[in-house]
Amino acid sequence: MIDILNTISRWAIPLLFLGITTWAISRGVSVYESFVEGAKEGFHTAVRILPYLVAMLVAIQIFHHSGALDRLTSFIAPLTSRFGIPSDILPLALMRPLSGSGSLGILAQILETHGPDSLIGYLASTIYGSTETTFYVLTVYTGAVGVKRIRHSLITSLIADIAGFLGAIYIVLRFFA
After folding, report:
1. 131, part of any domain
2. Which residues constitute the domain of residue 135?
3. Does residue 15 lie within any of the structural domains?
4. Exposed, middle or buried: residue 27 (CB in 10 Å: 0-12, 13-18, 19+)?
5. Within a domain: residue 85?
6. Would the CA dihedral through 125, 86, 103, 151 be positive or negative?
7. Contact by Cβ (8 Å): 98, 133
8. What is the DSSP letter of 123?
9. Fewest CB within 10 angstroms: 28, 91, 124, 166, which?
10. SS3 assignment, position 97
């Protein structure tokens, strides 16, 4: 069974690419020209969002390296410990809405320290998979299309992150504690 799944996964992308190309040619679409046009649009989009992306990444680095993340974690830890939330996962929970690479680094550190099969390892992995890099996504996507007012999107996204965080805690503590 594993061999069949490995074979399917190895051939899925090439077959999908071949199928889309064949379908497009059968419809009379000039595939190469369409591909080049899409790549050109992608390049222009990347150039358009670059200032927003750089500003966001600089702000994240300042937040992390200034010690603000550690101070915020130590401020919140007494409150979260009352609910059985380990303080070791708070830096991940606070960094995840800001940065995928920053939160991945924190996740790797947690897994290295506590192990992937520990309660904290399960909790950190579940939180990482249940939440989103909200500020990064909003910065890139709204910057790409020129949206100026993101108040409602931001509030909704942060509520979804909190729900993902609380859901991850509930599920892991219920099934693995």
Report:
1. yes
2. 49-176
3. no
4. exposed
5. yes
6. positive
7. yes
8. H
9. 28
10. coil
Q: Structure tokens of 151?
A: 């108040």
Ranges under pLDDT 50 in the chain: none
Contact between residue 132 and residue 97 where contact means Cβ atoms under 8 Å apart = yes
- Identify whether 125 is part of a domain: yes
**Total residue length of the chain:** 177
pTM: 0.69
What's the domain count of the chain?
A: 1
| Helix or strand run (H / E) with residue 9 | helix 2-26
The two three-digit tokens of residue 29, written as one number: 């679409």
CA dist 28 and 140 (Å) reads 34
End-to-end CA, the chain: 32
Nearest 10 degrees: Cα torsion 113, 117, 123, 125: 80
Q: Pull the structure tokens for residue 65.
A: 């390296």
DSSP-assigned letter for residue 147? -
Cα–Cα distance measured from residue 112 to residue 108, given in angstroms and rounded to the nearest whole number: 6
* 161 close to 132: Cβ distance less than 8 angstroms: yes
Residue range 86-113, pLDDT digits in tens: 989 999 998 899 888 888 888 999 999 9
Q: At what angle do helices 151-176 and 134-145 cross, to 10 degrees?
A: 150
